[in-house]
User: Fold Methylglyoxal synthase from Ferroacidibacillus organovorans.
Amino acid sequence: MRIALVAHDAKKEDLVNFTIAYERLFQGHELYATGTTGKRILEATNLHIHRFQSGPLGGDQQIGALIAENRLDLLIFLRDPLLAQPHEPDIIALLRLCDVHAIPVATNVATAEILIRGLWRGDFLWRDVVKEEQERAEGEAR
Ligand SMILES: O=C(CO)COP(=O)(O)O
Assistant:
């Protein structure tokens, strides 16, 4: 599965600890992250991560583009609910796209934990069906 990891500054440590705790599970998946979040995870784990721009510089929108192209299966986005962000419109747009395309998204560590356990159990296999249908539809349109 393709998984994006994003955390605001106050939540970065939580996300780093989360990736350390579930490192073996994450190893079997394709990981993406915004710039600083990805750097922090790379420093703390042996995971391979494709890093986008930092969130305020467009990283949230780059993850949104993955969703728009049906190339993301899960977003873990630990937001800071106590601090206004300069790029708030990008954050809202990213979460909106998750709803548009029915992408599972966790915005706090408790939900992230439930989704990751679901991933481990195989609850995300329906995403493969969605991707196959999309690829078939794209093939027919060509
Ligand atoms: O701001 C962010 C998400 O909105 C996260 O960006 P960084 O990972 O670059 O700090």
Summary: The first helix runs from residue 12 to 21. The first strand starts at residue 2 and ends at 7. The pocket of 1,3-dihydroxyacetonephosphate is lined by residues 6, 8, 34-37, 54-56, 59-60, 91 (CB under 6 Å).
